[in-house]
Write a structure and sequence with these properties.
alpha/beta
Amino acid sequence: MKGIVLAGGDGTRLFPLTLATSKQLLAIYNKPMVYYPLSVLMLAGIRDILIISTPSAVPIMRSLLGDGSKLGLNLSYAVQDEPRGIAEAFLIGADHIGGDSSALILGDNVFHGAGFPELLRRTRDTLDGCTLFGYSVADPERYGIGEVDAEGMLVSIEEKPARPRSNNAITGLYFYDEQAVEIARGLTPSARGELEITDLNLAYLRQGRAKLVELSGAFNWFDCGTHDSLLAASQFVQFIEKHQGERVGYLEEIALRMGFIDAEACYQLGAGMRQSNYGRYLTEIAYALD
């Protein structure tokens, strides 16, 4: 399975924070926002990942993350020069995906919950068609909403419905089989000239091969597109790390736990940042997990 992080857009809802930088380079507590979606793909066992961003942000992303080899990954980069819809990621990333299945995650989404790595890998291994992830919200009229049957198969998807049929907001994490690129190529742009991800999902729904996994219980999801949600995500990560002792989105630790790198590599990555709490934690955890 190939991975894509879509980290484009102008971030206009976050002005003036994003007047001079990409939204996905802003901090969520103690690390850049892009670390969080990238960590999700890593937890799913995906190592071949394309990061799509704006012309100005791609060089900075490359400087931050490199080619991924230090993390046991293969990272590549592509430009989306204008926001033309989420589904355009499959046209931009067609060569990257090849004939493989793919997981797409939006660069401003933060996920956290017990058993999430196992859920991701199970979804990857049993994928048939497309699998979306739903999260119960109090204001479903603001989101794309998925309605499911008793088996978890999607029966309807509506964008910002006036009368929602459920509270399951479709999050910015999507798993697709090898047909995604072909389907995306056949989509008709919306009135705004965008290739809508909902249209791609509806194509799978019409095939009877669209599933929604409901993220419930103590699960948390943040779409960090506003000042309030950016702050809420930062406060959440701070609480988890300070009060529960769990680290969220530490790419080096995840690479070690997933077997992408060894303890010495993790230690050296931490030693290079030893002046920070982030770096010191990596040096401490490296051999504790060995």
